[in-house]
Amino acid sequence: MAQAGASWRPAEAPPPSPSGAPDPSPNPAPWQDYQTVFTNAKAGMEGVDKEKVQRIVYEMSKDSAHFRNEQRKQAATAARIERLRERSAGLGPAELAAAGRSIDERVAALEAGRDLSRLWLHADMDCFYAAVHEAERPELKTQPMAVGGIGMISTANYVARKYGVRSAMPGFIAKKLCPQLVFVPLDFAKYTAAAEGVRAVFRQLDPDFESGGLDEAYLDVTDFCAAHGMTPEEAAAELRRRVRESCGGLTCSCGVAPNKTLAKICSDINKPDGHYVLPSSREAVMRFVDTLPTRKVPCIGKVTEQVLKGALGIATCGQLLGPQRARLGLLFSEAALGFFLEAGLGLGATRHAPKTDRAVEPGRKGISCERTFRAMRAPGEQEALAGQLVESLAADMASEEIEGRNLTLKLKLTNFEVRTRSVTLPRHVRAAPDMLPPVLRLLRAEQPLELRLMGVRMAGLRKVHAASRSPLARLLGLRPQGPGSAPPAAGAGTGAGPTTTPDPGDSATGAAVNGGFAPASSSAAAAGRAISAGGAGGGGRPSSRVAGAHRTTEPGSSPPPLASRTASRGAQGRNEDKTSGHSSRALRLADGSFAVPPGLTAGGAAGGGSKAEPSSVPGTPRGVHAYGADEPFAHDEDNEDDDLEEHLGMPYEVYDGGGGASDDDEDCVMLEDGEPLLPPWEGPGGGAADTAASGDALCGLLPCDETGPAPPKRARLGPACAAAGGGAPGTAGHGHSLPPPPPLCQQAAAQSGSVAAAASETPAPDPAAAAGGPPNGFAAVACASNGHWACLLCTFKGNRRQMLRCLACDSLRGSTLPAPPPPPLPSTGEPTVGSGPNEGADAGGSRPAAASRGPHRGQDPRNSAAAAATAGPSPASATTVTTATTWTCRICTYSGNRRQLLRCEACDNLRGSTAPPPPAPPPLQPQQQQRPQAAAEGGTRGGSSAGAMGSSRATKAPKAQRSGGAKAAAAGAPAAGPLERLWASRSGGQTGTAAAPAETGAPAGAVPVRTSLAGWHSGGSRPAARGLEGHTARTAGARTGEPAAAALRVKGAGEGLVSSGGAGGDRRCPECGAQVAPGPAWLEHTDWHLALSLSRGAAA
DNA sequence: GGGTTGTACTGCG
DNA sequence: TTCCACGCAGTACAACCC
Ligand SMILES: Cc1cn([C@H]2C[C@H](O)[C@@H](COP(=O)(O)OP(=O)(O)OP(=O)(O)O)O2)c(=O)[nH]c1=O
Ligand SMILES: [Mg+2]
């Protein structure tokens, strides 16, 4: 359909060119129906032969996968519109009348709250990126020029726009439109620098101006105008003058209006290099809005415009308040309705958004890294790429000193279908080795895949400092360090560091890494950590980060390439343990040991699990904070760890066996290092019920030196550091004193010592060889002789025992504690396949669990998957591997030879089997890893080389650009890290040469751009006297409880308004044909297949 | 009925 | 000959838990 608003101008503003009205004439030509984001109206499009542009775009697209995907999406939109039309047609008169009345009341309330007292100015730089390049190379001003590359254009100068070249247009199409087009690669460092200059000017008019991205800002110029006796018109002219004169000739366009939303709309009217002032009167506003195309309103995009037009015939803001307004209220959500009504009234936010404390808040909700490349099918190659992405993400997170809990893998198939798969981790993490395993798990569950893009994203963020400032951290002598005070870089990318074993994910490690905190006594040790450099250099100052702190490191000290790094992870971890591991260990206790198993928060039904209020438990030791309903640690989202720590002032470990509803028979197993696991069914005390119901797993057992440690019941809990005794004084002021911790080194020694003692029967292997990250990840358990292990599927690390779960009854049956030497194990049958996960379990096999109960012993290194994956001598595996052919579960009555599978306590996922592991695959070589058949066919050299070439830096193309790209380029030797090289070698038509940096992207890392309506539209500042009930979206918390624009969903439609329709169905498992619900069930299902295939492989 | 998790979709620059 | 980015924010909804 024609772009109704393509050439809209307010009635008062004389059109600069004779732009025709939208022609609703029929479209005999197919190209006229192909809507793209860049066929929308945009400044500089006047006089463009839109018909021709449309035709060329269509011709260049019509046979592509991208086009087909666009068609698919368009069909979904059409279907959505059709549903809305049907619903609309079904509305009865009474219904409509009632809705109309309430809407009118609401409109009246909104009108009553209208605030015309402020003067808002929105400034937007003209073709910003292009202008920056033009300022540097004036000859470009007269040539058609685009910023970006053949794959994608970020923006174009006005000469190029005359040809129809636009933002978000693929370069090859632009080239077709304008063969003379000059491409200039992105250079985010330049844009950032230019933006700083511009902001300095903005600050002159409004010290509190709000950035809307690199190139735009909102200024409340009310005070400025009053102080200088200026009219809005003069203020806008003054701002533009100052920008032009002090920013190297860069120009901007401005809009002035009584609220932010209108100001933004106005800034586009006289673009480029112009301004438009909307008078602050209700009449002027209403007149302006009356004919304003809906598409001009921020947050109404291509789809919403179509929906409004198609379903209700609404094309202008004025029509939003017209006869259709009652239907509007009945078809759309509450939030959407409010948003539409405000648009119709010309309302918007009139006050500054509150500032947040960036030192405490992460300053963002999520952080991500993604890449597009040529079609990639080989799983090994994909996993190698995942590793690079994770490394890059970890580096970025380190530089911002943030950690997160919600990890998302994004996949775009070659048909442009996008999939996201996410997990909520048991704790906050930020190190690459903590993130990769879950990412790989998500990735593997989707195979087979033919990809064109992969991305990783972390959300649920918090500042690392939050954890580091804990009482324990202080107790351990941690002290804050300035960004520059960190030891010299010993390695490169933060996330690349070997981290797994000493619990890298903990606060201490990261703190040392990013220079925020470091153990007072171990800075030297920290200096030796390969991961310390990048973050340290860049920590703190944004400018540092922009300078590419995490990329610019000495090649010699860089992390090894992915392949070798993966292979040597365990050993490196060991080294850390030996050297600087002390600090990690100590901190790990503070943080890592807080990992709360899913059962704690997602606990089962009856027994209540961990959310039971400990305060209700009689006998709660004094001095230990009781977690009542008003302070539900499990409810406090991101801070449960800290809350506990805050109140306990010491590390603790807890395992809540009350897990899922189906796990009633599981018991609490609370362990402290070196202490033999006491299986619930063997220990003193009652059954599972009491623990689960009482909640004393937490509260009743918390150590407290006022009352003394609570008597262990079936669960044991103890501060790991208590064993060593002696040391610093406890912290005061937390309601209790703490057992003085020993020096860190003693703690570590005590820990490993105690474990070693407990495992004395088993050979004491070289710790350096103990922890091993299996290259392929799945084989799962990384064990150390000191009892620490890491789940490779989730991020759990620590010394909790791993529990073995019976395949038949699904109950925990034992631990991975060292057990008596098992009898030699004859390998018997081969597991059958066929059966589904739950039944397939009986795939027989020679699995014996010699000891079906109690502590098990594993001596055969091969028994540990980790051991198998470890190149070196195998550690005394903590994994129980028994060798009998039959065993009996003591929870249920199962007796047989089903293999036992290992399940991680923390993530509750199957991680491997007790069957002898398959031969260790080679290190993560893209071509060879896993699924050789797939690898063989899809494999290009790219991935392979990527794996092998991680020669120097953990960098990546786009970010190399946005942070250090310019610098590197200037130096004549562009940094080429693993991701960057992989990208360069595989980028599908996006990069010319391997040396070329990414041509498109976004300047991540800077302050996130506010893209929602929150803050744009009128906020909760007004008394929202609504006649309607349940305006939850408005009142609930969010002071800016603005409807975020995208919220425009249909209300109550049974079908996914979000076009989620059709997706609800089960997925068919390619392995067994089972229909499995997507989501966690699917993951679990694929876990089983992996585990079983592992068992089979081993048996064979 | 409330909260949490996971997913798709929309929009912005 | 090929060939359509990246990073961020937000809403809605289903499924599940308490
Ligand atoms: C729209 C868009 C912009 N950008 C970048 C490049 C732009 O120069 C910068 C600012 O975006 P815009 O302000 O939307 O565009 P512009 O400044 O280039 O042109 P105009 O004169 O119309 O304001 O953001 C992208 O990278 N991708 C996009 O899709
Ligand atoms: Mg601009």
From TrEMBL:
Q: Which residues form the UmuC domain?
A: 120-301
Specify whether Metal-binding is a keyword of the entry.
yes
Could you say which EC number(s) this protein's record lists? 2.7.7.7
Q: Where is this region: Disordered?
A: 1-34, 476-514, 533-644, 721-771, 816-880, 912-974
Q: Where is the composition biased (Pro residues)?
A: 12-29, 915-925
Q: Where in the cell is it found?
A: Nucleus
Output compositional bias ranges, type Gly residues: 601-610, 724-733
**Gene Ontology molecular function: any one:** DNA-directed DNA polymerase activity
Do the record's keywords include Isomerase? no
Protein name, UniProt field: DNA polymerase kappa
Q: From which source organism is this entry?
A: Edaphochlamys debaryana
